[in-house]
Structures are given as C-alpha cells and as structure tokens.
Amino acid sequence: MKYALTAALAVALGLAGLTIGYGQTAMQPTPTTKILAIGTINPGVEPARVFAILPEEVRETANLYLDGKIDQWYSQQNGKGVVFILNLTDPAAAHDMLEKLPLGQAHLMSFELIPLGPLAPLRRLPGMAPKP
Predict the structure, then answer these.
(1) Which residues are paired to 36 by β-bridges?
(2) How much of the chain exceeds pLDDT 70, in percent?
(3) pLDDT below 70 — which residues of the chain?
C-alpha cells in the first residue's frame, strides 16, 4: 500500500513539475495524440442565427465523426457550446478543420484547442525504464 501511495504522490507531483527523489532528469517530451477542442458561441451572437445554421452544422460534424476525425463529442452542461476530442495531432490542422464548419465560417463559434498526450509523469514511477 505504501508503494501505491508513493507512486501516486510521484505522479501528482510530476504533474506539478516537481520530483521526490527519483532523480532530477528532465521529462522526455510526450507526443500529442489527441486534441481537446472546446467550442463556445461567440459573445453577442443572437441564438436565432445559431439555430438557423445548426442543422447543417450537425450534419457536417457527424461527417467528421464518421470520417474518424472526431473521436468523441459532448455538449457543455451550461449550454454554451460543445467539447470534442479530436483524432488529430496538429493544432493548426484542428483549427482549420473546425473553422470550415458552418458556425466557424459564419464567425459564430470559436474553439480553444488543447493538445493532449500520454501522462508523462508516469515515466517517473519506480522501475520505469527511460526510453532511449
């Protein structure tokens, strides 16, 4: 049990950029494997404009899902937008793809893009061999 707590603490501290005696080696860069896209309707946009475009937006979004570019899609519980997990590794490509959707073309929705990757602090667990 002590090892599990110590490992959990090491991961938590690693997330914060700290170490607890497992060496001061720099973290290896982790690859971007997905992109989290948080879309919100732009301030001041009238809902009627969004609802007029929404059927086309949903069809094109469904096509991106069927093409494998969107892995998961959700609505925000506050009703202010959507959250996608994209099967893309390049934020610029993700931005271009999302801007081509009808709400993007009409400048009614904006996305915050967050690159995601493997949980890098796991490399600091005792017994994990560094990759060459």
Answers:
(1) 85, 114
(2) 77
(3) 1-28, 130-132
Q: In what order do the strands lie in the sheet with 81-86?
A: 70-75, 81-86, 34-41, 109-116
Residue 111 pairs in a beta bridge with 39
Q: Answer whether 124's CB lies under 8 Å from 19's CB.
A: yes
**Three-state SS string across 37-74, please?**
EEEEECCCCCHHHHHHHHHHHHHHHHHHHHCCCEEEEE
Summary count for the chain: helices (H), strands (E): 4, 4
Using CA atoms, how far apart are residues 43 and 110, in angstroms rounded to an integer? 10
Q: How far apart are CA 15 and CA 120, in angstroms?
A: 8
Asked whether the whole model's pTM tops 0.70, one would answer yes
